[in-house]
Amino acid sequence: MHNVTLIKGDGIGPAIMETAVKIIDAAGVSINWEYAEAGMGAYEKYGTPLPEATIASIEKNRVAFKGPLTTPMGKGFRSINVELRKRYDLYANVRPARSWKGVKTPFSDVDIVVVRENTEGLYSGIEHYVGRDKSAAEAIKVITREGCERIIEYAFQYARDNNRKKVTVVHKANILKLTCGMFLEAGDEIAKQYPEIEYDQKIVDAVCMHMVTNPHQFDVIVTTNLFGDILSDLAAGLVGGLGLIPGANIGADAALFEAVHGSAPDIAGQNIANPSAVILAGIMMLHHLGETEAAQRIHNALVNVIETGDQVTRDLNPNGVSTTEMGDAIIAAM
Ligand code: NAD
Predict the structure, then answer these.
(1) Which residues are catalytic?
(2) pLDDT band at residue 131, thresholds of 50, 70 and 90?
């Protein structure tokens, strides 16, 4: 029996998470789901977006399955997603983007894994106004040598463990000579320990252009926090949208699994959101828990349903079905 903290989240979160949990339970994995709250819903109910009970639950279980959380724009409380990643030192954010049969996109056979540094960089949260009249504002980008080394090491080890052929370190060291320069130095050093894996380094703006003209040259991409956030959405666009990309947040002794997308307030409450990203996040969690067979079974069923194409949500087929119906089709396919 595995103990997992389950946070359904805001907006489309409850609908897609309930669907994913139903599928994981139907696969026969024995999980004790410990319900916890966070985000805007928790803030409105308890006056805090991250209640103590939620912290205690993750502290105990060390594995969490989380729906998207709403963060107020430009004011209000700070992102709880960023807070959880920092609190549990979930330094590696792994976001795989693969083409799907049955999803029409400009390229087929795209298979890119973005490994994003998750705790430093411009998401360090050090921001302030400058001058008495708030005439300017600055954000401080913090990069540590240890932070660079452990994320690049993670990416190379991920490549080795998953039989991937190439790691591309993405940076902007021509302009950000110290911060991105440190990241690049770590890449050069660590690549030497993985001689069987091809090592490449590219500037982030060039990577954006190359990803949309020849995405097949990329395999594993490792980069700093902000670049990783942006490039993983770009990768999502290449393979059919945000509804299809999961994310694992991995630390030395805790892990949190979620979709890359947010709470999608524009479609919340309509039971039309694509549950695939959180189902894929659930599959990553099952691998993390050693439940490989169940993970594979759910994956095969999802591939089957997406390829068949009539029991998918409307972002994939305008004549498609609801979130719940897509979930039921996946269970039937298992
Ligand atoms: P979003 O990802 O919620 O939505 C962007 C677009 O993609 C919207 O048009 C939405 O309808 C669509 N979309 C997203 N997920 C979908 C799905 N599963 N199926 C079908 N369509 C889907 O991004 P946003 O609108 O910029 O952010 C909304 C809120 O979510 C913000 O408060 C933001 O801070 C938060 N957010 C949370 C997380 C997280 O919890 N990890 C990640 C990103 C954004």
Answers:
(1) 123, 172, 205, 229
(2) confident
What Å distances lie between residue 168 and 20, 93, 139, CA to CA? Answer: 32, 16, 27
Identify the DSSP state of 103.
S
For residue 301, give the amino acid letter. Answer: A
Does residue 19's CB lie within 6 angstroms of at least one atom of ligand 1? no
Per-residue pLDDT, 31? 97
Given a contact cutoff of 8 angstroms between Cβ atoms, the answer to whether 277 and 243 are in contact is yes
The encoded tokens of residue 36 equal 């916890």
Closest to 33 (Cα-Cα) out of 59, 8, 68: 8
Q: Judge whether 110 and 216 are in contact, CB under 8 Å.
A: yes
Tell whether ligand 1 has an atom less than 6 A from the beta carbon of residue 277.
yes
Pocket probe mutation, ligand 1, options 70, 79, 239, 263, max atoms within 8 Å of Cβ = 263
Decide: pTM greater than 0.85.
Answer: yes
183: left (phi over 0), alpha (psi -120 to 50) or beta: alpha
